[in-house]
Amino acid sequence: MAINDGLARSAVAVVPSDTTEVGYSSIFVGGAGIVAIEPVGKPGTTVNFTVPAGGYVLCQCTKVKAASTATLMIGLS
Prior knowledge:
Blueprint: E1 11-13, E2 26-31, E3 33-39, E4 47-51, E5 55-57, E6 61-64, E7 71-76
Antiparallel strand pairs: 1-7, 2-5, 2-7, 3-4, 3-6
């Protein structure tokens, strides 16, 4: 039986790219900055989040864009 507890099952280092597709449900940000994402279901749309160190982007995304300035990002899924 699958348990859906809402917790991430995977955590990987984020490498921002305008072409690489990912499947993150949220992103942890270790170093403050802007996280530019392409949200799920909105191809070609970029949404920018200004995130403090230790913050999260709580939005499903298909891309983390190269314009992101935040560092030490971890993609959770």
